[in-house]
Amino acid sequence: MAGIAEAAESREWFLTAYAPDGVPTSDHLKLRTVKLALDADSIPHQHVAVEALWVAVDPFIRFMMNGREDGLYFPQFDVNQVIKGFGLARVIRSTDDKFSEGDTVIESFLPIAEYSVIPTASLRKVDPKAEIALSDYLGPLGLPGFTAWVGIELIANPKPGSTVFISAAAGGVGMLAGQLAKFRSCRVIGSTGLDEKVKLLKELGYDDAFNYHKETDLDTALSRYFPNGIDVYLDNVGGKMLEAVLNHVNTGACIPLCGMISQYNKTWTEREGVRNLMNMVGKSVTMQGFLVSSYFDRFGEFTEKMETYMIDGKIKSQSTIYHGIESFLEAFASIFSSSNVGKVIIQVRP
Ligand code: NAP
After folding, report:
1. How far is the CA of 59 from the centre of ligand 1 (A)?
2. Residue-by-residue pLDDT tens, the chain, 350 positions
3. How far is CA 329 from CA 30, 51, 232, 322, 334, in A?
4. Burial environment of residue 197 by CB neighbours within 10 A (0 to 12, 13 to 18, 19 or more)
5. What are φ and ψ of residue 255, in 5° steps?
6. Where does ligand 1 bind, in terms of residues with CB under 6 Å?
7. Residue 169 DSSP one-character state
8. Helix (H/G/I), strand (E/B), else coil: 63
9. Cα torsion at 275, 277, 281, 284 (round to 10°)?
10. Among 261, 294, 321, 334, residue to substitute to test ligand 1 (most atoms within 8 Å of Cβ)
11. How far is residue 344's CA from residue 334's CA, in Å, rounded to a whole number?
12. CB atoms within 10 A of CB 247
C-alpha cells in the first residue's frame, strides 16, 4: 500500500460453522473481502492498523473452532468472525505512542486477514537481526521454538546420555526440540511420516529417525529403536504412539505432553484411549501437560539463547511456505497430514 490510505480492501478468513470433528473445510472457513476504514478517526485509542506480513499455521487454531472448550480450553472463535493466529505484521497507523508506522510487530492472535485494526495490549515489537530471516520469528524464534525449549530445557531437563524420543519430529516444534536435546548430549530419535523427513532429521543431528507410517506395529518398532528404553518422550501426537511409548519407558522417565495432533479432528469420545497408564506407576513416570503461555516470563531468556544459536549456525530449521492469504485453508488442512516439512507459514506480503 503506498503511503497511508484512508481505507483498504482486505481479504480475511472467517468461521462459517464450527467443525466438531474432521479436518476443517470450506464448509467451516471462508474468505471474504471487506473494506476497512484506516483514517485516524477510525482507529480507537491504543490500537494500530496493520498489514499482515507472515502468518503461522499453528495446530492450536483447530481448538478454537470445534464449538466446545476442551483440550486446550481456548475460547472459541465466533461464527461469522475473522479467525486469528500467530502473525507478523507491519504497523501502518498507530494511536499508541509505543508503536509507530513501519514497526514490525508480532501478535499471538492476529486476524488472518490482509489488513486489520488491533489493540496494542499484547503486541510485541520485533527488531529482526540482520542474520535472521523475518519468518524465523514465527518458527525457531516463535511459538514452535519456544515450545521446544520449554519442553526440553524446562520440563524434561534431560541428563547427558539420556534417550530422548520426539514424535512429529520434523514439524516446527520437533525439529528444534531434537537439536536442543542433542546440545545436552542425549541420544535423540524422532518419528515422522515421510522418508525424506527421516533423512532430514538425521541431517539435523538426530541419531536416528523412522517413518511411523511404515511400521505395522509401533510397539515392535519402539523395541527396535529403543533397546535400552526411553528416558524422555516429547509427545506431539498422542494416541497410539503415546500408548506404545508407555511400554518402553525407563524408571523415572519424563513425558512432557506438548500436543496430541493425531486426535485433534475427533470428538473426545472418538479419541484413542491409552490402556497402559499403569506402567507409569511401576516406572515412576512423570507426565506433564503444558502450555507455553504459562512460561512467557522466560521468553526473553529463550530469545537471547535461540538468536545466538541461530547466528552461530548451531540451530537449523526449515519451513513450508504458502503464498497469499487465500492459501490459508489449504495450508491449515496440510498440517493434519505428513505432507509438510517444518513449520507451515504463509507469506501474506513479500
Ligand atoms: P506442525 O509443524 O504443524 O507439524 C504437524 C505435524 O504433525 C505434521 O507435519 C505431521 O508430521 C504430524 N501429524 C499430523 N497429523 C498426524 C497424525 N494424525 N498422526 C501423527 N502425526 C501427525 O506442528 P507443530 O507446530 O510442530 O506442533 C507440534 C505439536 O505441538 C502439536 O501437537 C501442537 O498442538 C503442539 N504445540 C503445543 C504447544 C503448547 O504450548 N503445548 C505450543 C505449540 C505447539 P508427520 O506425520 O510427518 O510426523
Report:
1. 7
2. 445 778 999 999 999 999 999 999 999 999 999 999 998 899 999 999 999 999 999 999 999 999 998 889 999 999 999 999 999 999 999 999 999 999 999 999 999 999 999 999 999 999 888 889 999 999 999 999 999 999 999 999 999 999 999 999 999 999 999 999 999 999 999 999 999 999 999 999 999 999 999 999 999 999 999 999 999 999 999 999 999 999 999 999 999 999 999 999 999 999 999 999 999 999 999 999 999 999 999 999 999 999 999 999 999 999 999 999 999 999 999 999 999 999 999 999 88
3. 8, 19, 34, 11, 9
4. buried
5. -125, 95
6. 58-60, 143-144, 147, 168, 170-174, 192-194, 197, 236-237, 258-262, 290-292, 335-336, 338, 340, 343-344
7. T
8. helix
9. 140
10. 261
11. 9
12. 14
Cell of 280: 507409569
What backbone phi and psi angles, to 5 degrees, belong to 279? Answer: -60, -25
User: What distance in Å separates the CA atoms of residue 256 and residue 229, rounded to the nearest whole number?
Assistant: 16
Q: Give the CA-trace dihedral at 40, 41, 45, 50, to 10 degrees.
A: -40
Distances (CA, A) of 24 to 16, 66, 91: 11, 9, 31
- H helix or E strand, kind and range, residue 177: helix 172-183
